[in-house]
Every structure is written in C-alpha cells, then in structure tokens.
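User: Structure please.
Assistant: Input sequence and predicted structure:
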Amino acid sequence: MTSRERFLAACACTPLDRPPLWVMRQAGRYLPEYRALKARSSFLEMVRTPALAAEVTLQPLQRFALDAAILFSDILVIPEALGQGYRFRDTGGIAMDYRLDTRAQVEALAPASAAPERLSYVGDTLRLLKQELGGTKALLGFGGSPWTLATYMVEGGSSDEFERIKLLFYTDRATFDLLLEKLTAALIAYFQLQIRSGADAIQIFDSWGGIIAGPDYEAASLQWIRRIIAALPRDFPVILYAKGTAPHLAAQAGTGARVLSVDWTNDLAAVRRTLPARVAVQGNLDPVLLNTTPAIVQHETARLLESMRGTAGHIFNLGHGILPQAKLECVEALVATVTGWR
C-alpha cells in the first residue's frame, strides 16, 4: 500500500494497520533547509514561484517518512486575489494592505473568477508536485474558511480582540453576508483549481472559528463551509480544521467534510465515538511535545495511538501547526513511532 492509498483509505474510514501521518506546517521554520532557502527568497516570493513552492513542499518528505505533502502557500492568497494584499509585520503577525471599513470596499472586491486567474501559480505548483510525487504520496491543497479570511480582511490583519469583525457580524449582517458570499465563491473556484491541478484532498482552516459566540458559529462560519463542500466533487476528501470549537464537532460533521481535524485540547478517541462512522478524524498530538525529548514524544504518541486502536478513520497529525522551536529528533521520533505502529 502506498502512502497515498493509505491516506485516502483513512479518509474513507477503511480499517488500516496504522494511520497515515502528516504534520500541519510541516514545511517551515523548524527545518534548517527551509531557513536556508528563506535567507535567499522572501516568503511571498516562495509562495508565488512554483519551483520554490514545490521545493519547500517537498523538504519535509525528503527528511521524514511522511505519508502526505501539503502545498506550501498561505490562506491570504485569496484576499490578495480579490484585491486586498497582505504582508508580514516586522513586529510579528499579518498586516493587510488596507482594512475593509465600508460596504463600498466590499463591493469593490474582485469577482470570484479572479481567484483562479490570479492564483494560476498555485495550479502550476500542484502540477509540479504531482509529477514529482509520482502517485506515491498524498498531495493536499488548502485554504482558509470564509469566516477566518474575513477576520483578517475586516480587522486589517492579525488581531487579539476581533472587535471589528464581530461588530460587522452583529450590526451589519447584510454587508457581512456580502463579504462571506464573495469569499465563498472565490474559495469554490480556488479549490476547484486545486483539484484540477492534482490535489488529492483539501484542508479548510477555520482557525478562528472559536472566537464567535457558540450559537452564532453556524451563521458566521459553518453555513459558508457547507456551501463550499457542496460545490466540490461528490465524496472528494475535505478536511475541516477548526480551533476552539469542541461543542460544535457534530455540526462540523454535518458540513459534508470527510475528516474533522481536532485540536489538542480534545480527547480524540472520545470525539471519534461521538461522530458518524463515515466521518474520519485527524490529530491531535500537542505540538509543544515536539519541543521536549524524543522519549517523551514516543511515549505520548504511542499513548494516542493506543487510544485509537481498533478505530477506522484516523489520520495522525498534530492538534495545531508545528512550532518553529520543534526539534528534528523529536519529529523523527514521532514519525518512527507512527510508521512502526502495529
């Protein structure tokens, strides 16, 4: 069984001898080869240059026996394609070129057709990766959820309080809905581009899903995710990751997502028992553990694997993105423990 076959089987909840493994943010700052490339090319240059993006995507697979590659890109390429660029602040975090303050600015955003046109380099990167992987590893595309993208666009970048996006949601629902409709249409076109270009699965990052009041999570986020999944090929593997939304896992399962990626604050085995048998789970080792020692990583990884023994539909991953301080020997211990598990 190839890694790609193993990954797709897990998405379909087929029983396996061990779960497939990949790591959120697996191509990034914890790798010395990434830091060396970053010293020569900016992040945005790497994202926009297919040869560089493909090189970064493949770096962790060249070092570790992972089962899937995930496209090196950023969720904010969608706002950029719609006319609202982004950059990284010197002090850390994201800054948008401007903030969406008015309905007129929302109306002025480019149409959904701009996404595949202006992000054609993503399709080029995926085709390069598909050829390089030769069908042996799963290839994942991704994007942000409409709600999560809207938070950056309305706040003007990274935020601690998310005051502006919440005010828009509660005081001007018509403008909020217009923005989310535009984002949803653009994401559908973008994900369709990724699928045409060779992606085996798509992960939707609803990273800020947990910041909206529980009863309003459906209106603010889930209804838009549901529309996106309904517009993609039937039964195409979509993974939904949402942070801080534990009370809404059942509702997330109703979006049509084939896999729910669960953050590290949840008991993954308990979550799995509450979900329909057709919905797989992904996760959910605490990423901080990769900053400790190989022995600790081996122990905690084995404990999570044992808790999921006999369960179909599990993709092993972290409960959030890998940290820049992660130790290579700890990642190696994680990979060895999962791939050697029986």
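The domain at 3-339 is CATH 3.20.20.210 (TIM Barrel).
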